[in-house]
Amino acid sequence: MAHRFFTATGTRNATAGTLKLLDSREVDVALVPFDSTPARFVSRPLWDDEFVVAARAGHPWLRAPTLDAYCRHEHLVVSTSGSLHGFYDDLLAPLRRTRRVAVAAPNYMLALALLAKSDLLAAVPRTLVDVHGAAAGVRAAPAPIAFPVQKVRATVPAAALGDPAFEWLLGAIERVAPKCTPGAA
Known about the structure:
With 185 residues, this protein is of the alpha/beta class. The chain has helices at residues 15-23, 60-63, 67-72, 87-92, 108-116, 126-136, 164-180; strands at 5-7, 29-32, 41-49, 51-56, 74-78, 100-105, 122-125, 138-142, 150-157.
């Protein structure tokens, strides 16, 4: 059986879409930061992640990462729907602050490639930058407004666990995931 994975680390707004992909069996395993899932799914914690602000190496914002400077720069959001509204906009709103989102990327790897060749900023998971940032030419600084740490989970339809291959796969992911995150021994 060839398993299909969906990784959307840090995209809480993708929850409904991700569950739909799992329900339809278009995706076998989703690695996403669900706080909770409906009873028809099994979700196992893998690692904790936090958001940072990423930009190309040498970007001026990285030298002076203030909220004012953050709001002045153009941004990229990761959105599977194409929406230019991101979770960080919700954090800025109570402060009566806004940012200009210029582009949406459908996944984080494309986001890194776009950041490396532009003056855009993007809020991305720390593990993404820690693992792939140097090779992509992207660096990060702490976000000017902290976003809560998220627990990334492996999620599958509960009915799938009747298949020994799914149980094995989920166990393998649980064993390997801690070794694939920065700081792993």
